[in-house]
Design brief:
By secondary structure, the protein is of the alpha+beta class. It has helices at residues 4-21, 58-68, 133-144; strands at 35-43, 49-55, 72-74, 87-93, 102-111, 116-121, 128-131. It contains three helices and seven strands, in the order αββαβββββα. This is Lipoprotein.
Length: 146
């Protein structure tokens, strides 16, 4: 006959396994490998949207994933910028075919004088970020068809 402590440990182990198996392990983590689509809205100076573009083609998605990995993020930072963002990008991540896509929003400012870009993310783990000239030009070309 098993001891009472052995039975308690076994029940506790099963409960821990069930709880771990039922939780979403990455509520704020976005895996670029799961990126399926990007919707881009070009913003006019008055804050209204000029045009929308949906990016799904494999070539541009791969280029975007490479650039997004190179963003220098500063979590818990939210700078105030003097003008309205140039584009708003909504990234769609699919983790499970049976679940809705998870969304991540970026506000992006292109700085022509420096050829860089500033990005503010709605993901608190990212916050505020910047990318260099080369990568800013790639994103600008994809998003604004330049």
């Amino acid at each position: 006959m098993p001891k009472k402590t052995d039975k308690s440990i076994w029940i506790l182990s099963v409960m821990v396994l069930v709880l771990c198996g039922c939780t979403n392990l990455a509520p704020n983590h976005f895996n670029l490998n799961q990126l399926t689509r990007v919707d881009v809205e070009v913003v006019k100076s008055d804050g209204t949207y000029d045009e929308s573009v949906m990016i799904t083609d494999e070539e541009n998605m791969n280029r975007l994933k490479k650039v997004l990995k190179k963003i220098d993020w500063e979590p818990n930072q939210e700078p105030k910028l003097a003008r309205t963002e140039d584009v708003k990008a909504t990234l769609f991540f699919l983790y499970d075919e049976n679940m809705p896509e998870r969304l991540l929003e970026y506000q992006i400012w292109f700085h022509q004088e420096e050829d860089t870009a500033t990005i503010i993310s709605n993901n608190e783990e990212e916050g505020y970020g910047k990318i260099d000239k080369k990568n800013a030009q790639i994103i600008e070309k994809i998003f604004l068809h330049k």
